[in-house]
Amino acid sequence: MADQMQWANALSTRPSLEAAVTDVVEQAVSSLTASADLGLVFISSAFASEYSRLLPLLSEKLSVPVIIGCSGVGVVGTKATGEPEELEAEAAISLTLAHLPGVNVQAFHLLGDELPDLDSSPNAWINLIGVQPFPSPQFILLPSAFSGKINDLLQGLDFAYPGSVIVGGQASSGSSNRQTSLFCHDPANGLYQQMYRQGTVGLALSGNILLDTIVAQGCRPIGQPMQVTKAEGNIIVEINETAPLEVLQNLISSLNEQDRMLAQHSLFVGVVMDQFKLTVQQGDFLIRSILGVDPLGGAIAIGDTVRPGQRLQFQLRDAQASAEDLELLLQQYQKQQNSPAPSGALMFSCLGRGQGLYGRSNFDSELFRRYIQDIPIGGFFCNGEIGPVSGNTFVHGYTSVFGICRPLTVE
Questions:
Q1: Which terminus of the chain has a smaller tally of CB atoms within 10 A, N or C?
Q2: Is the overall model pTM greater than 0.90, yes or no?
Q3: CB–CB of 344/96 below 8 Å?
């Protein structure tokens, strides 16, 4: 039998850190029939006072060349029954192990002040990461919630590694403890049981591996796409040669009563990322918040820079829109019938989703499993989610990003 890619995930809610680590290691190891090449660990903020003990405890019980992970308000994993579970605001650990034949696994830790200037050559970024752009590495990034220059890092990686896919999420913490933590263990590259408060830990996976992505931003468009005709930085001065506030007021007045109520607190802007695409649909927009409105001049400030000529469409977000958006993207992925089949998945979900959005647990992960079955899933609730839209990588909010892992070829 050929050596095949394998993924396993285990969850534990044991209140003792030692017991929880023992629990997840035993479960995950027993699910693999070959040695693990990679570990991904996500630990809830209920264990915040014991973060420094996590990697030493894992290393006592687990022999794996590379481990990365971070803290989260909640974690996502797979129960022994194969069903996904999202554990929010309770003591929990999620451990993913992967056997990756034909894949080179390299971990790294970067600080914002180590990054090259954005006008630097691709070689400056390649030298920083220490991984060649061919074959295209697949990246998993776990930044600190307060990490500077994460947008610069994403732009630099997109520039230097044009064929690569990047997913991940910013570490999060509970309201009573703002200290997020990142974990990295890769002795072959000089990183031994390291815990960090700042920067970004990441993985570069090169060789026989591909990350398919689903980026569910949870909005539905209202009105029609329009063109920005005047803008300065993140300020939209004119849309279709009209003051944005006037455009918005006319749009809201055309909505039904339920949507008008929703627009009072859940209105966003979707910027079309592919300017050459004639017909746009869900998945073509980069969703950004509306930061403020100038009642005199009618300009609108949004949470990103915008250029004249870009198209945009206003968006609404609620539980139903989020569910429909994710289901539509899952249906599109299922129709692709990718081969070889996926082996495992990672889920990076905004801490504003979950029970707070849907009113019940496990919504996104159960919907995912309905369409993509029989693979383990692990992840956590983030303070910003990382994933591509129209070929470029961004930090999102209120989003669930899935990285679906499969081999490029059957070994």
A1: N
A2: yes
A3: yes
